[in-house]
Design goal:
This protein is of the alpha/beta class. It has four helices and four strands; from the N terminus they run βαβααββα. It is globular.
């Protein structure tokens, strides 16, 4: 069995940690299993994950109803290999040796399921591409 250090760690960041970053973390966990350490956080976390986001993820077989938004910490950034900001211009501490990506995606906050589906699909496509970049085959 490989040591935990052998697994890359990815942090998804958006302002409220209630939509895009939750979808990114859920897809990466679903597709990579325990081969990637996954976190998500927000600079101003909401009280709960957006209901339309929960519903959109259920449609593809991923239940995130029990997830709660978390506050972004310097420690979370320091302990991540890849930091992905989700198109929100979020202020994120920058540390040398980290890989930073900014995924420009529409904010699903306050939107209905019809508007959330294409955002969900774009997040999934980018997560699959990220797995390819990391050399990790998707398990689903």
């Amino acid at each position: 069995m490989s040591s935990p250090a052998a697994h890359p760690s990815v942090l998804f960041v958006c302002v409220h940690n209630a939509g895009r970053s939750q979808m990114g973390a859920a897809f990466l966990t679903h597709l990579a299993g325990d081969r990637v350490e996954v976190r998500s956080a927000g600079s101003a976390p909401a009280d709960s994950v957006a209901p339309a986001v929960v519903e959109a993820m259920k449609e593809v077989g991923i239940d995130i109803s029990a997830r709660t938004p978390k506050v972004l910490t310097t420690e979370a950034v320091q302990s991540s290999d890849v930091v992905i900001t989700m198109g929100c211009g979020d202020a994120c501490p920058v540390f040398p040796g980290k890989r930073y990506l900014d995924w420009q995606l529409e904010d699903p906050a306050g939107q209905g399921i019809e508007a959330v589906r294409p955002i969900r699909d774009a997040v999934e496509a980018r997560v699959r591409a990220l797995l390819g970049d990391l050399g990790i085959p998707a398990s689903a």
